[in-house]
C-alpha cells in the first residue's frame, strides 16, 4: 500500500512574487505612520504576522512610549493593507509555481496552501495562481493569532492534509518556514525566490535549497522529496 504524502506550500515569496511588494509597502506605511526603518530590517521579517513585524520594527525605530507605539502600529497596519491592495496588479506567479502544484497532485500528493496571510491578500494570490482544482486544503490568517515561526499554522495545514508529519514536506522562502516545520518534525525545502541567503536557510534547518518552485518539481519528479 502506497503511503499518502502531503506538500505544504507557503504562498508569499514561494508561489507568488510578493515578498518585495510587502517590503516596500511596510516601509512606506511605517514611514508615513511616523516610524521610518531601513528596507533590510523589513525584508528580514517578512513571513511573520503583521503585528509581530510592526512591534519589532518599532523597537528598531526607537519608539518606546506605549501610547505612541499603539497609535503608530494601528496606523501602519491600516496603511500597509491599503498600499498592498494598490500593488495587487504588480503581483506575478513565480516560475514553476502552477506546475509544481499540478504535478504534485497528479503524482498523488495532497497539496495544502499553508499561509497565514490575511484573507483579502490570500484571495488575490489565489485568484492569480488559478490552481484551485489541484489544491486540497488551505489556511489563512483567520486560522491563527500568530504566524510562523510559531508552528500553529503549519500544524493546522498538516491536520487538514490528514497525513503524519513524517509524510509531509514544507516548501517555503523564509527561515520561519523551516523553524515552524522542524518543531513539528516536518522536513522542509527552501526556495530562493524570497531573497534569503543559503547560509541562513541552512541554519534554520532546511534539508534542501533550490532556486524556485520549478526546481522543487524537479526534486519531486526525481523522487527526492
Automatic annotation (TrEMBL):
UniProt xrefs under SUPFAM superfamilies: HAD-like (SSF56784)
EC number: 3.-.-.-
Cellular component annotations (GO), alphabetically ordered: cytosol
MF annotations from Gene Ontology: phosphoglycolate phosphatase activity
A GO biological-process term: DNA repair
Transmembrane segments: none
Protein keywords: Hydrolase
Broadest EC class assigned to this enzyme: hydrolase
Name listed for the protein in its UniProt record: HAD family hydrolase
Organism: Dietzia maris
Amino acid at each position: 500500500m502506497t503511503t499518502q504524502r502531503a506538500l505544504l506550500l507557503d504562498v508569499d515569496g514561494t508561489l507568488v512574487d510578493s515578498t518585495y511588494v510587502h517590503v516596500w509597502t511596510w516601509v512606506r506605511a511605517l514611514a508615513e505612520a511616523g516610524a521610518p526603518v531601513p528596507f533590510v530590517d523589513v525584508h528580514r521579517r517578512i513571513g511573520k504576522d503583521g503585528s509581530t513585524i510592526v512591534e519589532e520594527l518599532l523597537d528598531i525605530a526607537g519608539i518606546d512610549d506605549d501610547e505612541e507605539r499603539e497609535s503608530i502600529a494601528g496606523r501602519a497596519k491600516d496603511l500597509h493593507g491599503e498600499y498592498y491592495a494598490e500593488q495587487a496588479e504588480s503581483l506575478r506567479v513565480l516560475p514553476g509555481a502552477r506546475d509544481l502544484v499540478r504535478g504534485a497532485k497528479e503524482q498523488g500528493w495532497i497539496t495544502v496552501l499553508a499561509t497565514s496571510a490575511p484573507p483579502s491578500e490570500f484571495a488575490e494570490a489565489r485568484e492569480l495562481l488559478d490552481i484551485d482544482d489541484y489544491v486540497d486544503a488551505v489556511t489563512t490568517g483567520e486560522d491563527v493569532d500568530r504566524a510562523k515561526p510559531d508552528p500553529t499554522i503549519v500544524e493546522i495545514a498538516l491536520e487538514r492534509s490528514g497525513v503524519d508529519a513524517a509524510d509531509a514536506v514544507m516548501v517555503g522562502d523564509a527561515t520561519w518556514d523551516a523553524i515552524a516545520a522542524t518543531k513539528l518534525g516536518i522536513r522542509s525545502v527552501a526556495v530562493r525566490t524570497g531573497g534569503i541567503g543559503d547560509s541562513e536557510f541552512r541554519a534554520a534547518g532546511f534539508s534542501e535549497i533550490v532556486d524556485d518552485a520549478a526546481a522543487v518539481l524537479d526534486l519531486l519528479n526525481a523522487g527526492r522529496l
